[in-house]
Amino acid sequence: MADDPSTRNPAVLSEGEITLGVLDAVHENGDVTQRTLSRELGIALGLTNAYLKRCMRKGLIKARTVPANRYFYYLTPKGFAEKSRLTAEYLSHSFHFYGRARDQMDDCFRDCAARGWRTLVLFGAGELAEIALLCAMRHSVDLAAVVDPDAAEAEFMGLPVRASLADVAGFDAVLITDLKQPQQSFDTVSGLVSASKTLTLPLLRVSRTAPGDGA
Fold it and tell me: How would you class 129 by CB atoms within 10 Å of its CB: exposed for 0-12, middle for 13-18, buried for 19 or more?
């Protein structure tokens, strides 16, 4: 994606964006080399090495030796949490957020229609839920409610707001629209309705597998 931290001008990358780029790259490919990581981030090899070591010192990334004197990197639970925090921070300041969210939301709703999933629930009130409501008008899906345990209002843009999924019946799938803690919301919802029917947009960078110890 053109506006990801790893593809921006390195001269204007913040410390948080570089760290997020490192965590993202390791999450996507634990076999990544420092040279490849340097190229993907668009920063010098020495700087890449420094950030990788910093992430390891902070306990965000661990490494184990694999054949041919190489390392396999993996995120720790602390690393997953930091990636989620940095993602939320990055998204809240991203100029291109709306366009990306709209396009990915359209793709999600098209996929739901193809699967025969007509009734969806949004999990999380806020900006992403607003975009979902606007996009839904162009697709053959119905939004039944917004679930948000912290919401103070009874309605969100005309949709009823519920404190729990248990208060909503007759839906086909749940779309995560929580920008503050998307990973936590995914983990909560997928434990209630199954991961296959817990939908996420790529921009949220949610891991759909539980963090392990790299074994």
Answer: buried
Q: What is the bridge-based pairing of β-strands 142-147 and 61-66?
A: unpaired
Of 92, 126, 142, the last residue of a domain is 92
pLDDT, one tens digit per residue, over 126-183 is 889 999 999 999 999 999 999 999 888 899 999 999 999 999 999 999 999 998 889 9
Are residue 83 and residue 101 in the same domain, yes or no?
A: no
Average pLDDT, stretch 187-196?
Answer: 94
pTM attached to this predicted model: 0.61
- Residues 30, 86 share a domain: yes
Q: What contacts 32, CB < 8 A, 6 or more positions away?
A: 25, 26, 40, 73
Q: How far apart are CA 184 and CA 15, in angstroms?
A: 24
pLDDT at 26 over 70: yes
CA nearest to 184, candidates 170, 173, 198, 172: 198
